[in-house]
Amino acid sequence: MSQQTNAQVTITGRNVEVPEHFQERVTEKLAKIERLDPTLTFFHVELQHEPNPRRESEAERLQITATGKGHIARAEAKEDSFYAALETALGKMERSLRKVKVRRENVKSGHRAQKGTGQIAAELVAEAEAAKPAKEERYIDPYAETVEDVRPGQVVRFKEHPATPMSVDDALSEMELVGHDFYLFINEENNKPSVVYRRHAFDYGLISLTDADA
């Protein structure tokens, strides 16, 4: 029996038509993601074919954006087929949601559960393997075609986001959900712009701005 999600799902294709049987598979797979976080109310899945004879193994790109109450989760994958890309992206999103769920439970309980050395070592190895790039990639500027006057050092993209003050733990959770290496937020402890970021050995860092005249 196929599983259906209660959340709204939209599926779009860029340079590709999305067949009905693939849409059904996506909906069934997203039902599992929804069970991990019942607050998710909207999923947007985008498929894009990127023709490049030298990178046929990564020609099919799929991105999943999940929106919930006050948070967004995002995962992306490039494979040789959309089916493979779907499984890879779903795996990334599932790991992020599980990691955030554990973090929130620890914060809510007021303590962090103690782990044995074996469990810690296993987690470090697993995260190290997951962090390794699958293949050596050559950097391609995604905005090169949109810049008319090609000069080095230009700002080619501007983004603004509404900011609600949050704790450092919440900012770390949001960073995990969107799959970035940093996250800009307003720290509720001092109401100042701050950034959490990944450091070596699976630690995190925090940068905050201060008034130079203070």
Give an account of the 3D structure:
This protein is an alpha+beta fold and 214 residues long. Helix content is 33%, strand content 23%. The chain has a 4-stranded mixed β-sheet. Strand 6 and strand 7 (204-208) form a beta hairpin. The longest helix is centred in the middle third of the chain and has 28 residues, at 82-109. It is globular and about 60 Å long. The chain starts with 7 loop residues before the first strand and ends in a 6-residue tail after the last strand. Mean pLDDT is 77; it is low at 133-139. One of its GO terms (biological process) is negative regulation of translational elongation. Required for dimerization of active 70S ribosomes into 100S ribosomes in stationary phase; 100S ribosomes are translationally inactive and sometimes present during exponential growth. This is Ribosome hibernation promoting factor. Keywords: Cytoplasm, Translation regulation.
